[in-house]
Every structure is written in C-alpha cells, then in structure tokens.
Amino acid sequence: MGFSINSYSQDVITPTIGEDIEAKIIEVDKTDITYREYDSQDGPILTISKSDVLIISYENGTKDVLFKQVQLAEETMETKALEDTVEIEEESKGLANITLISGEDIQAKVLEVNKIEIVYKRSDDISGLTLTIPRSNVLIISYADGTKDLIYKQLTPSSEVKETEGKNVQSNSEPKPAETVKLSKAELRKEGIQDSKMNYTGRRSGAVWTAATSIVFSPIAGLIPAVACASSRPRERNLNYSDTELKKDPEYKKAYEKQAHKTKAIKVVAGYVIGSAAWILLIFGL
Question: CB-based burial of residue 222 (10 Å sphere; 0-12 exposed, 13-18 middle, 19+ buried)?
C-alpha cells in the first residue's frame, strides 16, 4: 500500500490547535517562529508563538519537536476526548501517521487507541503482525481524513518570557501535575518489553567483533566472543531508556533489561552466523 501522510514539498507547522500551516520558515528564535505562507511567499511575514506549536516538519524531512512532555490528564475542548477504548473501524480513518515524542513517524493503520497503548499494523504490511506502542511514547496521531488525536499537549514553562506589544509579559500560571494511570505489575512488564524493543538497538553488543573473528580466523574461534557477548547483559549506558520515571519501577526495569539482553544475544548470534557463512564461502568457495 503506497500510503503516506507527511510527504512534504514545503515546511509544515503543526499547531496545538487547528490545521497544519504550509509555510516557508524564515526564522525560529527562543519564543517565536517567523514564516510566510507557502502559497504567498511574497506576502506578509507572519509569526506564531513556539508555545502554540507541536512540531515543525521541514521540507528536507527533518523535524523540530517543540512540545514540553506532559501527558493529558484531561482532554481539552480543542482535543477530542478518547473513551477508555476506541476501536477504529472506518478504513479512511484508520490510516494514519503516528508521530512519536522522538519525532519519528510510523505510517500505520490504527486499530485501537486505549489508555495504555495504540494498537496498529504498518501500512506497508496490513496483513502482517498486529503491533502496539505505549501511549507515553506518542505525541500525535494524524489520520488520512485530516483529523488528529493529540496524545500530549504543550505546556509553556512559567518562567518563559514573551514580548507582546513591546512589553515583557511573564506567565505566572504553574502547570498542574498530570494524573498518572497506575499500572499493574503485568502491564509494567509488558510496557518494559515494548519500550526495550523500540529503544534498545543492540548498540555495542559485540556482534561486529564476533562476525569479524569468525571471518578472519574461523567459526570455532568466533565462538569465544559469541558466547562471551551473548551471555553478558547490556551495559546501563547502552540501554537507552526513554522513560526515566518508569525506569524507577523494578518490574518495568527488570522486563526492559531482560528483553534488551535477549535482543543483544540475537544480534550476537546473527553476527556469528554471518561471519561463519562468510568464512565457509572464502575457504571452500575459492
């Protein structure tokens, strides 16, 4: 399926409320974004406050995610309220672009949105596996019919100062702490596994050294680094936790690290197999 929502030939400003703005960005400073409308590049220069913007998607494919990460405790009037579980039935509604808090996009068919996670299939593999992603990792879901679900909303820090009509105005309102959904032990373990699959990439797993040893010396020699690397747990600095609060929970942390160890072992074994196959081809294929 050749479905794509965000294929831009211009800069796109996604505000917290309202439709996307197709624009030509002129400048982004500490408080404001200066731009011209894309269809009127000889027209007036416009500005929008950064506190009113979720994402800037540039023409070259890069993005600036401007929001402050505070999960919605209550849906605002401008944001469509979600029920405990929303099943997406309409074909055009289900096709969507899921934007993560990291700025990464997932082209998907959304099947369900609930308080814990988004259930979806990749748009290029509709008949494939049903996948899930924790709500805490998602910024916005943009559907093919033009509607959006804002999973996070932006809070402007109380210390931020804006210039309005030549005067400095400081916001004195303090953000209300977000209500958190208390997860069961099973849900924490599930989220730990999901986050580990998404965030831990097997960096410095030893797979490359295992493959190199197997190619240069022999598969037997390659077994030494393979066993050593696969049996050791990933180092803390390589785990790449995305949620520092959940990391403090022992159930979540244990599940995350166990899945990361499994991912590391798989990568090391793959490196060993590739290296051994290459050695066999070099020795017996000549």
Answer: buried
